[in-house]
């Protein structure tokens, strides 16, 4: 069957990356976590005291950033300039700054160019905020995920706890709300549903159900494009 591109966009902590990864495994596709790339850039900016109001400084820093992914024991792992930063990029300090960094057009242009190169041969599932609208506007399947805020915050709390970070529910909720607001209102490629995206509300369904729904949609699209 012909390989397609699957774009999964939506709000924070709706289940995009977990679903995208599982769908990619089922279809034998590559999974690309575009959010991890923005998080890695943010980590670099924080560690190197890059001021996001100084465009020249941001441009110079971007030239020094190299991001790649590796599969380590089945887990998609993010590398920044050769170092495994998977754990660090999920920390609250990065979560609290990533959306501001992601408003910068120069940052977005650099990330989008890399993401398009990664999807050149198709057979990819990519999740983020602008995948169906900007990165791959011609993606054969676009899914827009939503879920109720209370459910999202609870799921993120559990996810972080499983990774050894115990965080207060209010702090998580505040971060998700703030990021959703910045992501949806920024000037450069704001988070919005593509006209041809299928809405998937994950509030009342299991992870397995949402994976199977996306796989079924993907198979339909593969047949149409065969
Ligand atoms: O997994 P979570 O929902 O916490 O976020 P993420 O996918 O890791 O993305 C972190 C942040 O990166 C988002 O809140 C956006 O500010 C930014 N992002 C973006 O602007 N465009 C993307 N394609 C992906 C992420
Ligand atoms: O990528 P995004 O920020 O949209 O969300 P995620 O990090 O994939 O999902 C947040 C957490 O919700 C993960 O621990 C998932 O396993 C969990 N979850 C889910 O995605 N869907 C459900 N129906 C139930 C739980």
UniProtKB/TrEMBL annotation:
Gene Ontology MF terms in the entry: ATP binding; dCMP kinase activity
Record Pfam families: Cytidylate_kin
Location of the Cytidylate kinase domain: 6-219
GO biological process: nucleobase-containing small molecule interconversion; pyrimidine nucleotide metabolic process
Cleavable signal peptide: none
Cytoplasm is among the record's keywords: yes
UniProt-listed CDD domains: CMPK
Lineage: superkingdom: Bacteria
Protein name: Cytidylate kinase
């Amino acid at each position: 069957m012909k390989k397609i591109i699957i774009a999964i966009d939506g709000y924070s902590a709706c289940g995009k990356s977990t679903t995208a990864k599982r769908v990619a495994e089922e279809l034998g596709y590559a999974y690309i976590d575009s959010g991890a790339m923005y998080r890695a850039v943010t980590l670099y900016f924080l560690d190197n005291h890059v001021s996001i109001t100084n465009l020249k400084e941001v441009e110079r820093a971007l030239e020094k950033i190299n991001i790649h992914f590796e599969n380590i024991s089945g887990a998609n792992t993010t590398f920044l300039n050769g170092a495994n930063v998977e754990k660090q990029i999920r920390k609250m300090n990065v979560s609290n700054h990533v959306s501001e960094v992601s408003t910068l057009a120069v940052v977005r242009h650099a990330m989008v160019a890399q993401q398009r190169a990664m999807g050149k041969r198709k057979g990819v599932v990519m999740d983020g905020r602008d995948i169906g609208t900007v990165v791959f506007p011609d993606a054969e399947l676009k899914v827009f995920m939503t879920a109720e805020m209370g459910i999202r915050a609870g799921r993120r709390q559990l996810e972080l706890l499983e990774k050894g970070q115990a965080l207060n529910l209010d702090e998580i909720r505040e971060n998700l709300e703030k990021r959703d607001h910045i992501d949806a209102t920024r000037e450069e490629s704001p988070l919005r549903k593509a006209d041809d995206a299928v809405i998937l509300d994950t509030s009342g369904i299991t992870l397995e159900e949402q994976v199977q729904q996306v796989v079924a949609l993907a198979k339909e699209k593969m047949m149409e494009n065969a």
